[in-house]
């Protein structure tokens, strides 16, 4: 009887250990699935953040380029206007000099 009781307790312990092992395996698998899902979500979020940052940087570069080109165009327009004004002043000065030279020649006679 003592042997039967010991054998029964040993079998009960073995069955409960097996059940615990199976439960532990299930919980470990579930934890692994949760970790994998969290990792996937983190990678997706990081990817989205990188895409957004790239899009923002591209927009900023495009805007800076457009601003720089507009500034260069305005500078070229102002330079062209200044050159045109200087050319007009030079033409006026040349015309005045020719007029004075012509008057001087006429007055000499």
Q: What does the main sheet amount to?
A: none
Range of helix content: over 70%
> What is the number of helical segments per DSSP (H or I, 4+ residues)?
1
Query: Which parts are unreliable, with pLDDT below 50 for 5 consecutive residues or more?
Result: none
**SSE order, as H and E?**
H
Structural class: mainly alpha
Task: Tell me what you see in this structure.
The structure is a single chain. The protein is mostly helical and 109 residues long. The protein has one helix at 2-108. The radius of gyration is 47 Å and the shape is rod-shaped. The model has no long low-confidence stretch (mean pLDDT 83).
List keywords for this structure.
109 residues; mainly alpha; 98% helix; rod-shaped
Give a concise summary.
With 109 residues, the chain is mainly alpha-helical. Helix content is 98%, strand content 0%.
Topology summary:
Elements lengths: L1 H107 L1
């Amino acid at each position: 009887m003592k042997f039967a009781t010991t054998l029964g307790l040993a079998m009960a312990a073995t069955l409960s250990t097996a059940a615990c092992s199976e439960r532990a395996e299930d919980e470990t698998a579930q934890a692994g699935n949760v970790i994998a899902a969290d990792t996937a979500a983190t990678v997706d979020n990081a990817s989205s953040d990188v895409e957004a940052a790239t899009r923002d940087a591209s927009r900023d570069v495009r805007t800076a380029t457009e601003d720089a080109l507009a500034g260069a165009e305005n500078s070229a327009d102002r330079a062209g206007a200044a050159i045109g004004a200087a050319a007009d002043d030079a033409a006026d000065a040349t015309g005045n000099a020719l007029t004075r030279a012509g008057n001087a020649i006429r007055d000499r006679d």
